[in-house]
Amino acid sequence: MTVTTAPPQSPTDVSLHESPRLTSGHLSPWVPWALLAASAAIGALLFAIVSIAEATTFNIAGWAVVSAILYLVLITVISSLVEGRRKGVDRLVTGVVTAAFAIAMVPLVSVAVTVVVNGVAGISADFFTMSMRNVVGEGGGALHAIVGTLLITLAAAIISIPIGLFTAIYLVEYGAGKRLARGITFLVDVMTGIPSIVAGLFAYALFALFFGPGIRMGFMGAVALSVLMIPVVVRSSEEMLRLVPNELREAAYALGVPKWLTISKVVLPTSIAGITTGVMLSISRVIGETAPLLLTAGVATSMNYNLFEGRMMTLPVMSYSQYMNQGIPAQAFIDRAWACALVLIVIVMLLNLVARLVAKLFSPKLGR
C-alpha cells in the first residue's frame, strides 16, 4: 500500500496562505498626532520667516489656519494611500468636524478668559456685602444688583415656566391636528424671534396703562423677561414631550389611568431631564438681558427687596451703567463692570449645575 505525503511547503507558500493581520492597511494611532505636530511646525516656520522678513508680529490666527489645512491634506493623502479612499475621506471629514468644533470654541474660551482676567480685579469682600449707595468713586459693591437679578429672574421663571409647560402639554397631548394648536405654534415661533427691547417696551406700555408713564419696578422687568422665556420653554418642553414613546401612554390607558394622571405620572417624569435643560436654557437666555431691564426696572444704587415698589438694579444693567458712566477714578468703574459680568457668568454656571443635578435625581431610573 502506497502512502502519499504532501510535499513540504516552502516559507514563501506559507506566507502566501497566512491570514493578514488586523493592523495591516491601518495607520498607527500615533501617525495623526505626528502629522498634526509636523503641520504645526511647518506652519510656525513659514510664519516665523514671514514675520522676521516683514518685521511684524507672529500671526497666530494665520498659523492655525495654515496648519489645519496642511494637516487635512496630509492625513487625507496618506490615509488614502495606506488605508484606502473610503478611510481617507472619513479622516478628512473627521478633521473638518474637529476644526469646526475648535473654531466654535475659540470665542467661548476667549470671552471666558477675558472676563475672568479682567473681573478678578473688582472682586472683593465689599463687592458681595455692600451696595453703591452714596459711593461716587472707589469702593462699594454689587449686593443690590445680585439680589435684584435673582429676584427678577425668579419672578420671571415663576411666570413663564407654568405657562410654557402647560402650553407644551396642550400642543402635544390635546391639540394634535387642531387649528388652535397650529395658531399657537405659529405665535410661539414668532415670539422666539422678538428682540429683547420689544419685550421691554411691551411691559412698559402695559404697566403705563395702569400706573401712568414713568413707572419703574422689578416686577415689570420680570414680565418683560417672561415674554422672552415663554417661547423657549414651550418649544423645548414640546420637543421633550414628543420624545416620550406612545407605548408608555397606551400602557397607562390600558390600565384605566386617566389622561391627566398619565401626563403627570408617566409623561412628565420620563421627560423631566430634557424639560429641566430647556428651562435652564430659557433662564440663561434672559438673565443677561440689559435693554428690557433698563426700560422696566431702571437703575438704582440702594437695596430693594420689593419687586412691586421702586427701581431695582440688576447685574447686566449695573455692568452697563458702570462702564458707560465712568467717574473718577475711571478704573474703579471699569473693574466693577467686569466684576459684575464675572459674577453673572458664575451664577449662570451654578444654575446649570443645579439643573443637571435636579435632572439626574428626578429622571426615571431604568432597570432590568
CATH topology-level name of the largest domain: MetI-like fold
> Terminal Cα separation, in Å?
66 Å
Question: In the CATH hierarchy, what is the architecture of the largest domain at level 2?
Answer: Orthogonal Bundle
β-sheet strand percentage: under 5%
Structural class, judged by helices and strands? mainly alpha
Over the alpha carbons, how many angstroms does the gyration radius reach?
31 Å
Question: How would you name the CATH homologous superfamily of the largest domain?
Answer: MetI-like
Low-confidence regions: 14-24
Helix content: over 70%
Please give the number of β-strands. Answer: 0
InterPro entries: MetI-like (IPR000515), MetI-like_sf (IPR035906), Phosphate_PstA (IPR005672), Phosphate_transprt_permease (IPR051408)
Protein name: Phosphate transport system permease protein PstA
Family: Belongs to the binding-protein-dependent transport system permease family. CysTW subfamily.
Transmembrane segments: 30-54, 60-82, 94-121, 141-172, 184-211, 217-234, 336-359
Overview of the molecule:
It is a single chain. This protein is mainly α and 368 residues long. It has 2 domains: 27-121, no CATH class; 126-362, MetI-like fold (Orthogonal Bundle), CATH 1.10.3720. The chain contains 14 helices and no strands. The chain has helices spanning 11-17, 30-54, 60-83, 85-119, 125-129, 143-174, 179-192, 196-211, 218-242, 246-254, 259-286, 291-296, 315-324, 330-362. α8 packs across α9 (218-242) and α10 packs antiparallel against α11. The protein is flat, with a radius of gyration of 31 Å. Residues 14-24 have low confidence and may be disordered.
